[in-house]
Structure formats: C-alpha cells, structure tokens
Amino acid sequence: MTIANAILLFIAALGAGIMNSIAGGGSFLSFPALIFAGVPPIQANATSTIALWPGTVSSAVAYRNRLPRSARVLAPLIFASLIGGYFGAHLLLQTPQRTFMRLIPFLFLGATLLFAFGKNPATSTRHAGPHDGAPWQSVAGVSLIQFFIAVYGGFFGGGIGILMLAFFTFLPFRDIHAMNGLKTLLASTINAVAIIAFIVAHIIFWPEALIMLVGAALGGYGGAFFAQRINPARVRAFVVCIGFGMSFYFLWRYR
Fold first, then answer.
1. Which pTM value belongs to this model?
2. CB 236 within 8 A of CB 23
3. 3-state DSSP of the chain
4. Sequence spans of domains, the chain
5. pLDDT tens-digit profile of 60-104?
C-alpha cells in the first residue's frame, strides 16, 4: 500500500463516517476507494464493512434507551438478522471474483435508487409515544422479510437501512427514534456476523481496514457534531450523485 493510497483511504473513510452520521450511504465512498487502491472487489466489500462497523455500533448504543423493550419483537428480528447476515456473507464468499465484479454496478445502482427514492417512513411518523404491542402475525412477517434483507446486507448491504425502515411500518411504531434505533441495531448485527465470516475466511485487508477505521471514527464524531448545522437533504443529494457516478463508472469498467 502506497502513501497515496493510504491518504485516499483515510479521506474516503473520513467522508464515509460523516455521511453515515448525517444521511447514510458511507459505503458509496469507502468501497470505491478500496477498489481504486487496488483491493479486489470481494475483499474490498469485506474490508469496507469492517471499517464502517464501529460507527453503526456506536449509533446503536446511543439509541439504546429508545429501543422497543419487548423480547417478542426484538428476538425474532435479531435472530433473522443473524441467520440472514451469515447466509449473505457465505454467499459472497462463494461468489467468483469475476461474477461479483459484474454485479457491482447493478448493486450500486440498486442501492442508489433506494437511497434516492426510498421514503424514510420515520420522517412522517408521529412522536406520540413508545412502541405498542405488535400482533404475532406482523412480527413473524416482518422477521421473514428481515431475513432476506439481512441476506442482502451480508452480501453487499447498500440501502438496507431504507428497506428496514419501510417494513417497520407494519409494526405499530409511534416513535421515530425507536425505528432508527432498531434499524441501527439490526444493521450492526448483520454486519457483525458478516465480519466474523470475513475474518475466518481471511479476506480482510487489515492495513487498509485499520487506516479506514480511524478515518471513519473521526468522520462519525465530526458528523455527529455538525449534524444539526448541515442540511441532511444536501448530503443526501451528494450521496445520490456519488452513487450514480460510481454505478456508471463500474458499469463502464466491468462491462
């Protein structure tokens, strides 16, 4: 790894940490940066996941007091995230490098479209009170959907937050902070299981990952500090532009 690549990865991780703390979409910077630094695509995906994971964990901790307390709701969703995240990571590890390279532009494009047009249900949810009891049919249905979201999350992961928030509307949430907290907790769970699989498979590029961990942590802290001073809509527009740009670049590169 050259000094130029180290600087590139640090700056990309710094930006990714800021983006994740304000509007999400940090992997749109971290993943391409690893590709540009010469890391193979599957290893880049795994390294990007571990580099950005501490930021999601810290966010989940910050939301700990707003999470639903019902084990009847939490347990099935966490279990579905664990199993789905494992299967998604296993699927990635079994995917030939060339096949994944050809999937990259479409994965990026799909995640960008979700990010651009996916409505965040939490923005219109009332602050009327905490989570109410959910019927078991709703919990079972959302848990099944969560399993498939987790499979995608373990495999690639772009846009999983929007997908989860969309399906949380089938549970009787009335607190936007509870929704965001649960989303962050489940995303952390999915990535944790995937990271374990990636470490066991020895596909993490550790020097690159450590540099990006520092950058993402600093970016996440700075982003949280400035979050109330920056218009999230502008950051979201920037993320979408990056996503479309990377989609077309990878389509051209791996056509």
1. 0.80
2. yes
3. CCHHHHHHHHHHHHHHHHHHHHCCCCHHHHHHHHHHCCCCHHHHHHHHHHHHHHHHHHHHHHCHHHCCCCHHHHHHHHHHHHHHHHHHHHHHHHCCHHHHHHHHHHHHHHHHHHHHHCCCHHHHCCCCCCCCCCCHHHHHHHHHHHHHHHHHHHHCCCCHHHHHHHHHCCCCCCCHHHHHHHHHHHHHHHHHHHHHHHHHCCCCCHHHHHHHHHHHHHHHHHHHHHHHHCCHHHHHHHHHHHHHHHHHHHHHHCC
4. 3-253
5. 777 777 777 777 778 899 999 999 999 999 999 999 988 888 888
Assigned token pair, 6? 């180290």
pLDDT digits 0-9 by tens, 217-254: 888 777 656 655 666 677 677 778 877 888 888 788 76
Long-range contacts of range 148-152, CB-CB < 8 Å, 24 or more positions apart? 148/84, 149/84, 150/80, 150/81, 150/82, 150/83, 150/84, 150/85, 150/87, 150/88, 150/186, 150/190, 151/84, 151/85, 151/87, 151/88, 151/91, 152/88
Q: Which amino acid is at 207?
A: P
Say if residue 187 is exposed, middle or buried (CB neighbours under 10 Å; 0-12, 13-18, 19+): buried
Between the CA of residue 170 and those of 3, 67, 95, 112, 165, what are the distances in Å?
49, 16, 33, 24, 10
